[in-house]
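The following block was generated as part of the benchmark described in Methods. Ligand: pyridoxal-5'-phosphate.
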Amino acid sequence: MISQNGAVRRVWTEIDLKAIRRNLSTIRSLVGPEAALLIVVKSDAYGHGMVEVSRTLVRGPGPAPAASLQSGPGEMLFGIGRPEEAARLREAGIANDLILLAPFLRNEVPDIFEHNITPSVGDAAGAELLNRAAMARGKKLAVHLKVDTGMGRSGVWHEEALDFALEFPNNFPHLHMEGVLTHFSEADSPDGDFTEAQVRSFNALTAGLAAHAIKPRFIHAANSAALLKHRATYFNMVRPGLCVYGVFPGIWRPPDLNLAPVLSWKARVTLVRDVPEGRFISYRRSFQTRGRARIATVSAGYADGYPVALSNCGRVLVRGKSAPVVGQVTMDQLLVDVTAIPDVFPEDEVVLIGKQGKEQILVEELAQRARTIPYELLCGISKHIPRFYNEL
Ligand SMILES: *Cc1c(COP(=O)(O)O)cnc(C)c1O
């Protein structure tokens, strides 16, 4: 990737918007045409660029807006984590419903009205704040009731949720309960018992609501892992993030599922050196050459989001081959052993995440090597790194 002034880039990402489209079709085919999709784009779409991703999703496959993707029964909404994300999306012309998944702060209440955000509420104090603000504006505000069935982060405890929901119209007359949601704690676990228990609690609530003729427009629970593993979690809307970006929450990939990674992360060889036997490499001498070696310096480090935890256990691709990370990852450089790879030169492209030749490094693999989760790696790719998008 050469920049406009002809300089060789040091570190960048490439985002495959076509892959996002294909992943969306795959998800649509899993859940059927009727289900609504709440696509989670919080945290800058997991580092992929929230505006570009959302625009790609609402535009549909052709040049004209595709009805099947954004309106009618199978409509599309976006999930955000902070009100300022709504401001960016609205500025970019995104008119779809925006569901604020995280709790809001008191001072953010005006933003909820200004940017037409649909907040999730999971406690009486939060609902009361919104109710008063809606009353003051002479409005009825749509909200989604958040129920804690075992995630243990936010929401009305499931044992109290039915009473809370039944009293909702009396207690908060300026709010409209448009949705009900819960969130899974370990839907990616090989053991589905806890998820199933959460589903049972949630089912009990929606059945209780139905018995009182309350049918919220949106009932939703499924994150990516639940979407891929637990059909009983779909209700009438699913709420995937990670799998839209072609990444799986665990190391497993369901076979025959057309979900392709969207993001590639690349850097450059800056220097290649012959190193004699017995030399220490990088800070704190955690790696020592066992024989004559050739070590390449690469233009990315932890300031770019490449974790120090990958010191002596990461790998990169160069000249279509895999090269191990040796020594400690430093702030803006890392070192790889290219002794077994002939003809490595400065300016060679280095793949940190993605494909090169026949080789591929998945973010799931890298996360496992770093003893973290793919989410953290993706979100950790520094904001200062340029993102390049392919044409649709
Ligand atoms: C982030 C988030 C999601 C998306 O989870 P994935 O595992 O990325 O699919 C769904 N629901 C809530 C409440 C979230 O916070």
